[in-house]
Amino acid sequence: MNNISRRDFVKTTAAGLTALSASRVLGANERINVGLIGFGLIGRFHLAALKEQPDVQVTAVCDVHCGRRGAAAEMAGTNPERYGDFRKLLADKNVDAVYVATPDHWHALMTMMACAAGKDVYVEKPLTLFVREGRWMLDVARRTKRVVQVGTQNRSGPPFQKACELIRQGSLGKIVAATVNNSRNISPGFGNPPDSAPPPELDYDMFLGPAPKRPYNRNRSIYHFRWFWDYSGGQATNLGQHSLDLVHWILGVKGPKSAYSLGGRWFLKDNCEVPDTQDIIMEYPGFNVTCQYREATAGRGGLGMGGLTFYGTKGCLPISRAGFELCADPKVNPNNVVAGILGVKGHPVGGPQLEPEEKGHLWTTPELDESGNAIKDYARHTRNFLDCVKSRKQTVSDLESGHEIATACHLSNISLRTGRKIVWDAAKEEIVSDKEANAMLVRPYRAPWDAELRALGITT
């Protein structure tokens, strides 16, 4: 193994699992030392958010690319330790909490190993690469009594919190459906570069980690990892975890009854794998959710914003990171559909009712960057995590709900890849009467990383 022996790390892991009393308990005013693993686009957002916190010191950074490692250290400005092997960061006694901002296929294992090393964890979405990883993460986090925050930062966004309040208090009546639409045009795709030797600045074997051994291709690493099944579930898990997180959180549901999906890489001409066009229908108790993801056509629904609309018996509510609209039922009174954020007082069947002076209160936000990212929400979500590290309370985006939402995303991809409807038993966490599909709930880890699972007490 690279730079640190498996035997040494297994010893560290075992110690973390059996001697958690040695973990430092932080006081309310005490500084939290943070280590950042992964310094891509989202890693930069996290580091910026951490730098805003008065009680944080970034003491370590880690990336498999030496250039990104150096850039992270420079941006931190705190002369942090620089690691190419995340296990060294986890063994660093000057790290209290870890941010995992890596490609998706690393999220689960790094989180579990960090918990076992006595670190609290902020882990990016999508939480997992396959369903069983979420249950493994829950078991390890509970056993080690670690605080875990999932990076679905919309829960910390004021427009989403206000919309949640309105929907829960019945402003839309009974919710009967939700729709998700995310469209952008990235044609003609990412090309067909030949396999080659990895660049010297990249530790490609460490990038692959538990994923299958494949020849290096520039489309398989850094950002483009998202277009390959070995490392990601495409937009159904990437953007899907954001959108379905809002559905689960606002409506208080734990999982779909069934999922059906179709699509393919029908338009983009490159060597990537996941769909550029995908449609999903999910059945929940009492309502349906439909999702559309388009990578080769322009349309409504901003990147990362969700393009989400809730439909109820008294009206609808389209929402994104830019804000939301509260629209009364036009069938009852066509004049009651109001652009912007202002609802209509006196709806004849008790639909959305808001006073005019409420206009502008936490309903829209100017805090978006040029890509539509709600940058202040990263800081708010970070603040919640740090407060929970000190209080030992549950985070706003807790691990169990993150597992349930990621599961829904994975079920849609299993439907896509098997070509049939998936019926889900949430209590048993099993697909009903489908042996082939159930086999897709888990994937093997590549050696030597499978040994780390066994060291964590996990049997596959």
Question: What this model shows, in words?
Answer:
Strand 4 (97-100), helix 5 and strand 5 form a beta-alpha-beta unit. This protein is 32% helix and 17% strand. It has helices at residues 6-18, 41-51, 66-76, 86-90, 107-116, 131-144, 158-168, 204-208, 235-251, 375-391, 399-418, 435-439, 449-455, and strands at residues 32-37, 56-62, 81-83, 97-100, 120-123, 148-150, 175-183, 258-264, 277-284, 287-294, 308-312, 315-320, 323-324, 327-328, 422-425, 430-431. The protein contains 13 helices and 16 strands. It folds into two domains: 6-155 and 441-455, Rossmann fold (3-Layer(aba) Sandwich); 157-201 and 221-377, Dihydrodipicolinate Reductase, domain 2. With 460 residues, the protein is α/β, with parallel strands linked by helices. Helix 7 (158-168) packs across helix 9 (235-251) and helix 9 (235-251) packs across helix 11 (399-418). Residues 14-22, 301-305, 332-349 and 354-362 have low confidence and may be disordered. It is globular, with a radius of gyration of 22 Å.
Show the helix and strand layout.
Blueprint: H1 6-18, E1 32-37, H2 41-51, E2 56-62, H3 66-76, E3 81-83, H4 86-90, E4 97-100, H5 107-116, E5 120-123, H6 131-144, E6 148-150, H7 158-168, E7 175-183, H8 204-208, H9 235-251, E8 258-264, E9 277-284, E10 287-294, E11 308-312, E12 315-320, E13 323-324, E14 327-328, H10 375-391, H11 399-418, E15 422-425, E16 430-431, H12 435-439, H13 449-455
Helix pairs in contact: 2-10, 5-6, 6-11, 7-9, 9-11
CATH class of the largest domain: Alpha Beta
Q: How many structural domains in the coordinates?
A: 2
- Poorly predicted residue ranges: 14-22, 301-305, 332-349, 354-362
The CATH superfamily of the largest domain bears the name Dihydrodipicolinate Reductase, domain 2
Report the total helices: 13
Rg calc = 22 Å
Mean pLDDT: 87
What structural category do the secondary elements indicate? alpha/beta
The profile of the biggest β sheet is: 10 strands, mixed
Strand content: 15-25%
How far is the first residue's CA from the last residue's CA? 22 Å
Tell me, briefly, the overall form: globular
CATH topology (level 3) name of the largest domain:
Dihydrodipicolinate Reductase, domain 2
Kindly report the oligomeric state of this protein.
Answer: single chain
Overall strand count: 16
Order of helices and strands: HEHEHEHEHEHEHEHHEEEEEEEHHEEHH
The level of helicity is 25-40%
CATH architecture level-2 label of the largest domain: 2-Layer Sandwich
